[in-house]
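To fix ideas, we now present one chain and its tokenised fold:
***
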Amino acid sequence: MTKLSVNLNKVALLRNSRTLGIPSVVRAATIALDAGAHGITVHPRPDGRHIRPQDVYDLAELLESRRDAEFNIEGNPFHAVLDLVREVRPQQCTLVPDEPAAFTSDHGWDLKREGGRLRPVIAELKALGVRVSLFMDPVPEAMPAARDVGADRVELYTEPYAHAFGSAREKEVLARYVAAARSAQQAGLGVNAGHDLNQDNLPRFLSTVCDVLEVSIGHALIADALEFGLGQTVRDYLAAIGARPAGMQQEGRHDLRHRY
């Protein structure tokens, strides 16, 4: 079953536009988890534009009482995020090669160039009991290298698929993800996916790319939540990935035809 981790960066971004402390990141996490999300993702950056260190501590405290949910902290290990990970020891740390001024994550690791620097970082995280995922482009040949540096999983960067969705290039682009996932799994890695996934493009991706363990979704999910409410939106995304929690009744789906 593919699990859903809700990225709360955009909730924090809105909160940071004023000094009132609303909307609450912890409250948003609680609503998402109560609606059936399997985990919470944050990506703190050095400039504090959205998630800040106190959010990480507060969410870690919340998740201590939600043993069925996972905490995933994303970030560049060479830009201070490791201090937070060492303190809170989330279930998963997704290492992302973005620069401090990057608008958003826009490429995966070049392990030929960065593998040597990553190896001791990954070893330290695993010694802390933290599962390590590497943010990677869908390049099949790179997946054995991800395993060689010690990663447990890769997160396939899905923006190219999202851009190709519904176009003549979709089949060709999607084939690269199929090959990359297969290569990762053959190397003994778990496969996650994330970036620009939404209710429209998720079902096709997950029905074509086999055995994706987790999708991390923030921007599109929070945008939908402005229209339909956060709890309902989480339930809609769970339905889109075919992972509705047991005992939760199906509610009406919204026919969305948007791109985020």
Notes: Residues 3-240 form a domain with the TIM Barrel fold (CATH 3.20.20.70). The longest strand covers residues 70-75. The chain has one domain: 3-240.
